[in-house]
Structures are given as structure tokens and as C-alpha cells.
Design brief:
seven-stranded parallel β-sheet, alpha/beta, single chain, 19% strand, 10 helices, Rossmann fold, 338 residues
Length: 338
């Protein structure tokens, strides 16, 4: 098999399997491109089963990506569970690097690596899914001269990922799955072999791609990408740098965790809620302990002790109200998540 002339990189999440199956069914065995797919999976997901389902629908050769495997035209590579899928020097890389947007595998990581390796010969595709993964990745593709394709949110089972991409990136094509296969075949055909929008690879993307390849980063690398901000990484507690390149607001810590602004906000909210649940538990335990001591020991039956119990009840009720309000807000933001 020949080396690919193009890379087609696809990112999807909720509702992704039916959309992927419909899309790859339209791609021929003689496709001159390699297709790499990030589908958000649980760590114990059956990747081989997913590949078998896709293989039954397409003429492409489908496989779970293996570290060091050669990139070949007409092949589809699925990211393994709990591993990032990257490319370099016509090879597939599979790493357990830091989460990006709280995902591993992450579409952003794949799109960046593909754009750095194949520049304007990269086509980024974002399909149905929740939240924001793939948005920054499409911008990486565009900054390297590649092409951005997004599923029409009106037909996406979960439109958050396509909508986020459309809000932040100058997308080239927005279309339903039914017409996407023909478009991809055209984009990798002979007429597009030497795109006119050839660009130099931005140095910051080369740095970020190198960080992902080596699994962990370093402070001096993060400082080249942006400036320190008064926030901490939700995943490791380290300092965060605001990335100053590109139009999509992003943040990175020196160990390699990366977030869009929306993903950072969602992640920090989850961390804060976890902390408040712990605080609620500890305050409930203290209230029960004080009440138990007062019931069995005259020394604790004082006005001051009653005051402490009332204060604890007030704080407990306030935390409960906050947490319940937060749960209602989350359900309103993502009603389809259930």
C-alpha cells in the first residue's frame, strides 16, 4: 500500500458511531488518504468491536491504531481507549499523554499532530458530540493551511461539538453526513494535490505537538506559548499559561494538560463542586458529632454549643442549595446528556 497524500482526521463523541458508520460507508478502498478517528470512549471500551462495526460498512481497511504503525492510504485508524492518537513522519503514534479538554483520546491532540505533519494536506472533520473537543483542533488545521469540515448541527444527534466549532473557527464546509463522503473524496483527489493555501507551520504548534509526543512538557516550553494567569490546572493543580496564539482562547499547564476556555470553565466547576461535596460531608459529620455529645454530656449543653449547631445548619443548607442549583444548571445546559 502507498503512503497517503492527505490525512482525514475525524473527531466525534456522543452519537458518533452511527454518524461515523454512515460517513465511512461512502469512502472507497482506493482513497488516497489515511483516515484517523478519535471517538470519545470509556477506558474499558471494546475498540476492536467498534472497528469491526465500521469495517462491516466500509471498503477501507479498518484497525485499532498501534504505536509505530505506518500510515497507509485507504486505511482507517481508530484511537484506542485512554490513549491519544498522533502522527509523525508517516507513522502512527499512540501515547498516554496528559488529558486535553479532559479527554484522552482528544480530537484536538490528533488534529494538531496531523496539521503539523501534513500541513495543507490535512482535512479536519468534526461530527456529533457534546462539549468542545475538536474546536481548537480545527483552528490548528486551518492555521497550517488545511480544510475544516463540520457536520450540520441541525442533523447532528448532539450538536454541541459542531456548534462550538462554527462559533470559533472559519469552517470551510458545513453539511449533512449524506454529502460528506463525496466532498472528502473530492478534497483528496488529484485536483487538490497541491493546495494553493500552503502555509508555513506555526512554531507554537510545533512546540505543542512535541509536548504531546514526549507525553510531558516543561515550564520553559509553556512560557513560549503564552503568559501565566492566576488560575490552576484542574487536573494537576499546576500553574496555567494562557496561550496567546490563534483565535480560540486556550490554556495549558507545563505538564501538558490543555483546555479551551469553555472546557476549563466546565472542569473548574466540576472541581469546585467536588470540593463542596466534601465540605458538606465534613460539616454534616461535625453537626452530628456535636449534637451527639450534647445529648450525652452536660458539658456540651450550653448556649454557645447551640449557637454553633445553628451556624452549621445555616452553612449546610446554603451549600446544599448551591449544589442543587448547580445540578439544575448542568441539566439545562446539556439536556441530551442523559
Amino acid at each position: 500500500m502507498a503512503a497517503p497524500s492527505h490525512l482525514i482526521v475525524i473527531g466525534t463523541s456522543a452519537g458518533g458511531m452511527p454518524a461515523l458508520a454512515r460517513l465511512v460507508a461512502q469512502l472507497p478502498a482506493a482513497l488516497p488518504a489515511a483516515v484517523l478517528v478519535v471517538q470519545h470512549l470509556s477506558p474499558d471500551a471494546d475498540a476492536e468491536g467498534i472497528v469491526a462495526r465500521l469495517a462491516a460498512r466500509t471498503a477501507l481497511h479498518c484497525q485499532v491504531a498501534g504505536h509505530g504503525a505506518p500510515l497507509l492510504a485507504g486505511h482507517l485508524y481508530l484511537a484506542p481507549p485512554d490513549r491519544h492518537l498522533l502522527v509523525k513522519d508517516d507513522q502512527v503514534l499512540v501515547t498516554k499523554g496528559p488529558l486535553e479538554n479532559s479527554y484522552r483520546p482528544a480530537a484536538d491532540a490528533l488534529f494538531r499532530a496531523a496539521a503539523v505533519a501534513f500541513d495543507s494536506h490535512t482535512i479536519g472533520v468534526v461530527l456529533t458530540g457534546m462539549l468542545h473537543d475538536g474546536t481548537a483542533g480545527l483552528e490548528f488545521v486551518k492555521r497550517c493551511g488545511g480544510t475544516a469540515v463540520v457536520q450540520d448541527p441541525a442533523e447532528a444527534e448532539f450538536p454541541s461539538m459542531p456548534e462550538s466549532a462554527l462559533r470559533h473557527v472559519a469552517v470551510d464546509y458545513v453539511m449533512p453526513i449524506a454529502g460528506m463522503g463525496a466532498l472528502l473524496v473530492e478534497l483528496v483527489g488529484p485536483a487538490c494535490a497541491a493546495p494553493a493555501n500552503q502555509l508555513d507551520i506555526p512554531p507554537d504548534l510545533k512546540i505543542e505537538a512535541a509536548i504531546a509526543e514526549r507525553v510531558v512538557g516543561a515550564t520553559n516550553q509553556a512560557s513560549k506559548l503564552g503568559h501565566l494567569v492566576p488560575h490552576t490546572c484542574p487536573d494537576c493543580g499546576g500553574n496555567l499559561w494562557k496561550v496567546t496564539h490563534g483565535r480560540v482562547p486556550r490554556f495549558r499547564c507545563h505538564t501538558g494538560h490543555a483546555y479551551t476556555a469553555d472546557a476549563l470553565l466546565a472542569s473548574s466547576r466540576r472541581s469546585m463542586e467536588e470540593t463542596m461535596w466534601v465540605a458538606l460531608r465534613m460539616m454534616e459529620e461535625r453537626r452530628h458529632l456535636l449534637a451527639s455529645l450534647a445529648a450525652h454530656d452536660d458539658r456540651y449543653q450550653t448556649a454557645r454549643q447551640d449557637e454553633r449547631l445553628e451556624d452549621l445548619k445555616v452553612h449546610i443548607n446554603r451549600i446544599r442549595e448551591y449544589l442543587l442549583d448547580g445540578q439544575e444548571d448542568a441539566q439545562e445546559d446539556a439536556p441530551e446528556a442523559a
